[in-house]
Amino acid sequence: MSITTENVEHVAKLSRLQLKEADMEQFTNQLNAILKYAEKLNELDTEGVEPTSHPMPLSNVLREDETRPSWPIESVLRNAPDEEEGQFKVPAVLE
Questions:
Q1: For the CA atoms of the chain, what is the radius of gyration?
Q2: H or E segment and range at residue 91
Q3: Taking 90 as the threshold, does the pLDDT of residue 48 lie above it?
Q4: Cβ–Cβ contacts within 10 Å for residue 35, how many?
Q5: Would you say residue 67 has pLDDT above 80?
Q6: Domains in the chain, ordered, with CATH?
Q7: What is the dihedral sign for C-alpha 26, 29, 35, 40?
Q8: Residue 22: what pLDDT?
Q9: How far apart are CA 10 and CA 8, in angstroms?
Q10: Binning pLDDT at 50, 70 and 90, where does residue 16 land?
């Protein structure tokens, strides 16, 4: 598969980009170089490689969720500028 200047022009139009002719040629060449390199990867023997392999062992570093007591509501609302029914009261942002 190769990229043509028409492909680049189409993508530029979809992206609402105005490219000069020289830029379109440059992007066409660069995208074709990327595709050529990706085709080289098809030559690799991946037969025994798991699809989700990773060079480093992965482990979950998050702690387990555990319940614990919360702060008393009076203590939490002590410095609140305004409070109503045990909740912070803030100015309305929507009408």
A1: 29
A2: none
A3: no
A4: 12
A5: yes
A6: 5-41 (1.10.20.60)
A7: negative
A8: 93
A9: 5
A10: very high
Is residue 32 within 8 Å of residue 2, measured between CB atoms?
yes
Q: What is the C-alpha separation between 16 and 18, in angstroms, rounded?
A: 7
Give the DSSP H/E element, type plus range, for residue 88.
Answer: strand 87-88
Residue closest to 30 by CA, chosen among 48, 15, 8? 8
Strands 83-84 and 87-88: antiparallel
- Distance from chain centroid for Cα 61: 21
pTM above 0.85, yes or no: no
Where is average pLDDT lowest: 6-10, 19-23, 25-29, 61-65?
A: 61-65
Q: How far apart are CA 6 and CA 8, in angstroms?
A: 5
Q: Token pair 């098809």 is at which residue?
A: 42
d(CA 86, CA 77) in angstroms, rounded, equals 8
Mean pLDDT of 60-87: 90
Output phi, psi for 77, to 5 deg: -85, 0
